[in-house]
Design a protein that fits this description.
By secondary structure, the protein is of the alpha/beta class. The chain has ten helices and eight strands. The longest helix has 21 residues, at 141-161.
């Protein structure tokens, strides 16, 4: 894909999270002429409005693409090396784009918090993605990325200091407050609705290694009760997003 027109397309740039992604690129790469990126969404007028609102250059490319129009998704994918999509719930709006990326060998990144759908997509497209060279990255946005990075950096530091990823960390955990976004709530509802229709999917939700087919690691804590963390010398309460984050981190 070295001849692709863009390095990154932000699909869903007119939505809440998509706008944040586009705003970040506009702010941090405004003087980087080497990075070629574009904003994509269903409405050209809304894309123009968001482009102006976030202070992106007036010549920032805009692409009209609709999750209900597979041809428009393929046309978008054909122009880029990678797509960041914030259009969910992904079990409703994600597969056509993912399939287009897999077929074209284009990298795909999302903010998915729907482990059942993710596992279904792994089973259906992983072999084809390996064949085409497409890198498919599922990540629950604000939630999983900090844990993934934290796990990575702790392992790297452990290798540097101890020669193995087995450090004992002491310190304090910062207080984090917030609430569900509309997209997170919609994804959760879609997942629960899918499970209600097919109870066999409960097994995927209960499996800490649901996103790593043919691999099972050490026994995992259930995370359904408060525990005293000896390393931090404080109590830790269950975190509802652990149902997703643990699966993503293992992946």
């Amino acid at each position: 894909m070295s001849s692709a027109k863009f390095d990154i397309v932000v699909y869903g740039a007119t939505g809440f999270t998509g706008q944040l992604v586009a705003e970040y690129l506009a702010a941090h790469y405004k003087d980087d002429k080497a990075l070629k990126w574009a904003m994509a969404g269903r409405s050209l007028d809304k894309l123009k409005s968001v482009r102006d609102a976030i202070g992106a250059p007036a010549d920032t490319p805009l692409i009209v693409a609709d999750a209900s129009d597979a041809a428009s998704l393929k046309a978008m994918v054909a122009q880029t090396k990678s797509v960041i999509t914030t259009v969910g719930p992904y079990q409703f709006y994600g597969e056509d784009l993912l399939a287009a990326c897999v077929a074209a060998g284009v990298d795909y990144f999302d903010l998915c918090g729907e482990p059942v759908w993710m596992r279904q997509m792994i089973d259906k497209y992983e072999a084809a993605a390996k064949a085409s060279g497409a890198r498919i990255v599922f990540s629950c946005g604000y939630d999983s990325v900090p844990f993934e990075l934290g796990t990575f950096f702790v392992q790297e530091e452990a290798r540097r200091v101890f020669g193995a990823p087995t450090p004992r960390v002491k310190g304090r955990v910062r207080d984090m407050r917030g609430t569900l976004s509309g997209g997170t709530a919609a994804s959760a509802k879609a997942t629960f609705d899918a499970v209600a229709k097919d109870l066999s999917l409960v097994a995927i939700l209960n499996d800490h290694f649901a996103l790593t087919p043919d691999f099972t690691g050490p026994k995992q804590p259930k995370g359904n009760r408060a525990v005293f963390e000896e390393d931090l010398q404080s109590w830790a309460a269950p975190f509802m997003m652990a149902l997703i984050n643990t699966r993503n981190v293992h992946r």
